[in-house]
Write a structure and sequence with these properties.
Length: 279
């Protein structure tokens, strides 16, 4: 996979790039594994905007992705690699020996025709796409789609190019280094998938023009000091100037920067090392 560039025939084309999808199957998603996404433009049931800067966008089907991987001890064959407009990663269509079909996140190195399997008890081959409990995975491997609670499905490292590192297994917990750099303990009964999520070049995509942002359903946004005083605490004044406040504020008057968003939780005791702050 790589970034595909075009001839600079227009200003938008000059700076735009897309992920090369020549290796993906050009087919419609499985009918039983999809549902139409209803657009709400960021509004709730009362019609009030609760999420700003949303609206429009291309029509999309949501693909039901199997994050639980609970079809245990039944080999599955990769019959298609597909694009998913709802996430940065690509997905793989798996057909199991019992005839059931499911979508999974496509790890780097998974190819059409490969066989994958998931198990809670057995030691499986260390191949991309195989799912095992943390207790059965050799330390030092890259893993993704990691559960925090056994049986509830993977919630960690699901984006394109993401992975965590299994450092050790001691007692009832495994020590995991997260993509953010945080090190924490997770129950060794939780499932994880071998390898890292594919489509790592997604982070290098440049949209190139405003229209591609609108196709994603994202509307324009402007800075607070470009607004009127009625719309934002930073608004008002002639031309652009400093905000004139002791600290930056959100549109609703609360602190915007340097505020801790994580409150004290019972799970804090499982965090061995916090993630490093970006400078």
């Amino acid at each position: 996979m790589a970034i595909k560039l075009y001839k600079p025939t227009t200003p938008g084309r000059r700076h735009a790039g897309v992920v090369d999808t020549s290796h993906l199957d050009k087919k419609r998603p499985e009918r039983k594994l999809r549902i139409i996404i209803k657009k709400n433009a960021g509004r709730n049931k009362q019609g009030q905007i609760t999420v700003r800067h949303q609206g429009g966008g291309a029509k999309q089907f949501y693909r039901f992705v199997d994050f639980k991987r609970d079809n245990f001890d039944i080999p599955g064959k990769v019959i298609a690699l597909e694009y998913d407009p709802n996430r940065s990663a690509h997905i793989a269509l798996i057909e199991y020996e019992n005839g059931e079909k499911r979508y999974i996140l496509s790890p780097q190195g998974l190819k059409k025709g490969d066989t994958i399997i998931s198990s809670q008890t057995k030691l499986m081959e260390v191949n991309p796409g195989n799912t095992m409990t943390l207790a059965n995975i050799p330390p030092g491997l890259f893993i993704h789609n990691i559960e925090l609670t056994p049986g509830k499905g993977g919630v960690i490292a699901r984006g394109a190019g993401m992975s965590a590192i299994l450092q050790s297994v001691e007692g009832d917990h495994a020590q995991i280094k997260m993509p953010s750099g945080e090190i924490r303990l997770i129950k060794k009964k939780c499932l994880a998938t071998i390898g890292y999520v594919g489509n790592a070049d997604y982070r290098n995509v440049r949209l190139g023009k405003a229209g591609r942002k609108r196709h994603k359903g994202i509307r324009p946004a402007v800075t607070g000091k470009s607004m009127n005083p009625v719309d934002h605490p930073h608004g008002g004044g002639e031309g652009h100037q400093s905000i004139g406040l002791k600290y930056p504020k959100t549109p609703w008057g609360k602190h915007a920067l340097g505020v801790k968003t994580r409150r004290k939780k019972p799970s804090d005791k499982f965090i061995l090392q916090r993630r490093k702050k970006k400078k």
